[in-house]
Amino acid sequence: MKTIVVVSQDPLLTNLADRLLSPHFRTIVLGGMVSAIDSIYNDIPNLVIAEIVPEDDVIVESINNLKEDPMFNQLPILAVIGDRLPVARWEGLLVEDYLRKGDLEQDLLSRVFLAVSRSERVVEINPLTRLPGNISINRQIEDRLGRGEVFAFAYADLDYFKPFNDKYGFSRGDEVIKITARLILNIVKSKQQQGSFIGHVGGDDFVFIMETGLMEEACRDIIRAFDQIIPTLYDPEDREKGGVESVSRQGTAGFFPFIGVSIGVTDTSVRSFSHFGELTGAASEMKHVAKKIKGSSYSIDRRRENG
After folding, report:
1. What are phi and psi of 219, to 5 degrees?
2. Separation between Cα atoms, residue 157 and residue 14, nearest integer Å
3. Mean pLDDT, to the nearest integer, of 34-47?
4. Three-class SS state of 264
5. In sequence order, what are the beta bridge partners of 154?
6. Which of the chain's ends, N or C, has fewer CB atoms near its CB within 10 Å?
7. Do the two domains 3-121 and 134-300 of this chain adopt the same fold?
8. What integer pLDDT is reported at residue 84 of this predicted model?
9. CA-based radius of gyration for the chain
10. How far is CA 14 from CA 18, 49, 109, in A?
């Protein structure tokens, strides 16, 4: 079920929105943008409906900051405004559509369906995690390289994911992917709210971009949180054994420990990269180094230009 976040302090509006939307969507009602942003970071919704009132400059600033973030500029926002408020007053507001309060009963549901449908046609995101996909990842890297920006790039994927997926099925495997996405998103954004980026390459592969000085701590925190959560996703008997009996990618039967996460990191302060492929290739090499270390781990590329 698709998720709609409704942001308003007006109980009449929120009750109406919940009544109209809840038969069709998972509806989350919140009183302000601070709590809404926390919710969005935890689980990216399909649409945000936000009431805009003239005296509340905070919500306008928060929406614009959210839409200017490369992580969330594809998240559609529907503004609800007063019946007499001039539309021109909000021409600087970065939203996709607006609806007047007096039209909510008649038009809200159709506008929401239209907004969600439109976003799914034009937005390139992973349908499982709602994170930007390969086109956005490529664009982020090329744009930053083109500007000569100094940044760190991490490539992460999961170890022993296939045996888990084979043992427990795709539904529980998808839950691992979604948990991993939320965990990376939360930790990266908690350390660098503006200018960071998280993308889902596909399957169990993720990337994230941060300031160079923040990357190593983020990797440590991701690994620590991941290793605490993952055992809880196994059945009690497998949790007791520390893994599952299953089959590897090569078709070999055996015992496989808990899923781990391996992260390879490189950055443009250490080496210069001329294009997307060079950067991702270097991070991928580091990821393979990390995979040789037992358990969840990260490896940072410290090679200089001269080797």
Report:
1. -60, -45
2. 40
3. 88
4. strand
5. 208, 265
6. C
7. no
8. 79
9. 22
10. 6, 10, 13
